[in-house]
Specification:
Blueprint lengths: L1 E6 L7 E6 L7 E11 L1 H7 L9 E2 L3 E9 L11 E4 L9 H4 L18 E3 L5 E4 L9 E5 L3 E3 L6 H4 L5 H12 L7 E5 L3 H13 L3 E6 L5 H7 L3 E4 L4 H8 L5 E6 L4 H9 L1 E9 L13 H7 L2 E4 L7 H13 L9 E5 L4 H10 L4 E5 L1
Parallel strand pairs: 4-8, 11-12, 11-14, 12-13, 14-15, 15-16, 17-18
Antiparallel strand pairs: 1-2, 1-4, 2-7, 3-5, 3-9, 3-18, 5-6, 6-10, 7-8
Helix pairs in contact: 4-5, 4-10
């Protein structure tokens, strides 16, 4: 038996409960978690913004140590340190054949499986986003684990599994920021702080952080922001004023709200690029008129998992960490136990802090 944070139903409070994990079957791996980051996607799953089979154990950003492996698993041994990969690519679908593994059609099929049972009543449990990291241990498909980088504590390496891959990839892959360009990052949570650091690594000449909370200014500047704007109805105007009335070359939206996406678009120069990382609900409608699309010549792009291939990009990020260019620790503003996850969700809704990490 292990302890886990169980979502009994969409919109219901999380419950800390004991669960029964089976031994890993063919092609599976059992992992003892060292840490799991609390991501906004977990909140979106719990409140119904994104669909998930329930009851479920959420958590998709984690790292730990392999306990045992099932039949047919090669290259992964007990005792190995690993980072969880919540979106394993199948290598066969049309997206994978094009090298766009972040759009794999089969990446989330495992989320519909029954992977464990609740000890108290034997009820089935699903692994939210495949990996069920809000638990002391989990059982995942072998494709959901990647070797943890050498020299990085697992409690920090957990962040590489989502926040850092997403923020870094949004800047380097989706927006393809070039040295000397100007960048605005909307939202200074875990992903936004990673995006700010990525913009600095990319050589951006001016980096504007935008957030609803003025309390995040020092955190944003530590991540690489040269300027800080408190979100308001005049955000785009303020950003344009900072850039000679031209607007930034690139805006990265990490919030997932229609008003923020629109502000990010409005803050870019003519011909600028806006990358949307935030996950919004179906009720968040963004509108543009046909004339402005022609006149401004801007690009608006969605971004899934930072358009990253985790197997390719994880070693790159690890090297940035080891060389001191990327600071994982500064993303973390709270270290909690499983019982602290509901409070971390509340802080997200209130716009407080960076990343909360569950230490197990």
């Amino acid at each position: 038996m292990v302890r886990a944070a169980v979502l009994p139903a969409v919109g219901a409070p999380l419950e800390i409960a004991e669960i029964d994990l089976p031994a890993p079957g063919p092609g599976q791996v059992r992992v003892r978690l060292a840490a799991a980051g609390v991501c906004h996607s977990d909140l979106s799953l719990s409140d119904g913004t994104m669909r998930v089979p329930v009851p479920a154990v959420l958590g998709h950003e984690g790292a730990g140590t392999v306990v045992s492996v099932g039949e047919g698993v090669t290259g992964i041994v007990p005792g190995a340190a690993v980072v969880l990969n919540w979106a394993p690519s199948c290598g066969r679908c049309p997206a994978c054949s094009l090298g766009e593994v972040w759009l794999c059609a089969d990446a989330l099929t495992g989320a519909g499986n029954v992977y464990a049972r609740r000890t108290s009543d034997g009820s089935d449990l699903h692994p939210g986003l495949n990996v069920a990291a809000f638990a002391e241990e989990t059982v995942v498909a072998a494709g959901c684990v990647l070797p943890a980088p050498d020299g990085i504590p697992l409690t920090d390496a957990a962040l590489l599994g989502c926040a850092v891959l997403t923020g870094y990839g949004a800047v380097h892959h989706s927006a393809a920021v070039r040295p000397g360009e100007t960048v605005a990052v909307f939202g200074a949570g875990g992903v936004g702080l990673a995006a700010l650091q990525a913009a600095r690594i990319a050589g951006a000449s001016r980096i504007v952080a935008v957030d609803v909370s003025s309390a995040k200014e020092s955190l944003a500047r530590a991540a690489g922001a040269t300027d800080f704007v408190v979100a308001s109805d005049t955000t785009a105007r303020e950003i344009r004023a900072l850039t000679g009335r031209q607007g930034v070359d690139v805006a990265v939206e990490c919030v997932g709200r229609a008003v923020t996406i629109r502000a990010a678009w409005d803050s870019t120069r003519r011909g600028g690029r806006t990358t949307v990382v935030g996950i919004g609900g179906k009720d968040q409608q963004v509108t543009f008129n046909a004339l402005e699309i022609f006149h401004w010549g801007r690009t608006l792009a969605g971004c899934v998992y930072g358009n990253c291939d985790p197997a390719r990009d994880l070693p790159v990020l690890a090297e940035h960490v080891r060389e001191g260019r990327l600071d994982l620790g500064m993303l973390v503003t709270e270290r909690i136990g499983l019982e602290g996850i509901p409070g971390a969700f509340e802080n997200m809704v209130a716009g407080k802090g960076g990343r909360a990490v569950v230490v197990l």
